[in-house]
Write a structure and sequence with these properties.
globular; single chain; mainly alpha; Glycerol uptake facilitator protein
């Protein structure tokens, strides 16, 4: 029975990550596709809403199965909170990377040549943003996301909001950080499109930044904000 639950959780993580990125990264590629064909890009607001709404509904749908992490940084934070084992976290990481890569490849196939301008929505540093600054921005954005994830889904005192608050946090982060770093907050969000597109510039920004932000937020929550046991 435990193995069955583990298998179900891993399927939920892989499939949920795939769907989340197909919609989220897809909204970025869609903008280039529409412009190339005489249309209008959904812009930053559209991209933020696509990511936020997709995550909100998927987290609500699959949260009971796997916790709906869809993000190695979230899994790291949940591990620091003591809610998942190291082995379970490693398996979640693999499932998330597989789902992310599948989304990147699917978008590459779906949009033909249109994916090249944004490299399938691969996060990138904005003008004047150095890798060190990018790491700091990603860390802050991810800390906000983790605070919301832990406070609304992990803490037993959490209000029953489903994935709404988490989706709103992602949308808000993208509105601020999208032009600066792509506001990935998620190593898998970089990994899938980057591998499919062959775009590896400054790759470490989207691994180190989210890891730092997740660790800091989880440690602060566990040591000062969580209910004493």
């Amino acid at each position: 029975m435990i193995q069955d639950r583990t298998a179900a959780a891993l399927v939920a993580e892989a499939f949920g990550t795939f769907l989340f990125f197909f919609v989220g990264a897809g909204s970025v590629v869609l903008g280039d596709y529409l412009v190339a064909n005489g249309g209008t890009s959904p812009g930053l607001v559209g991209v933020a809403l696509a990511h936020g709404l997709a995550l909100a509904v998927l987290a609500s749908a699959l949260g009971a199965v796997s916790g709906a992490h869809f993000n190695p940084a979230v899994t790291l934070g949940v591990w620091i909170m003591g809610r998942i084992t190291a082995t379970g976290a490693a398996l979640y990481l693999v499932a998330q990377l597989v789902g992310g890569l599948a989304a990147g490849l699917a978008l590459k196939a779906a949009f033909a040549d249109s994916w090249q301008a944004s490299k399938i929505g691969t996060p990138a540093l904005g003008a004047g943003i150095t890798p060190i600054l990018g790491i700091g921005i990603e860390a802050v954005l991810t800390a906000l996301l983790l605070l919301v994830v832990i406070g609304t889904t992990v803490d037993p005192r959490a209000p029953k909001l489903g994935g709404l608050a988490v989706g709103l946090a992602v949308a808000a982060d993208i509105l601020v950080g999208g032009p600066l770093t792509g506001a990935a907050m998620n190593p898998a969000r970089w990994f899938g499109p980057a591998i499919a597109a062959g775009a590896y510039a400054d790759w470490y920004v989207w691994w180190i930044g989210p890891a730092i932000g997740a660790a800091v937020a989880a440690l602060i929550y566990r040591t000062t904000l969580a209910e004493a046991t």
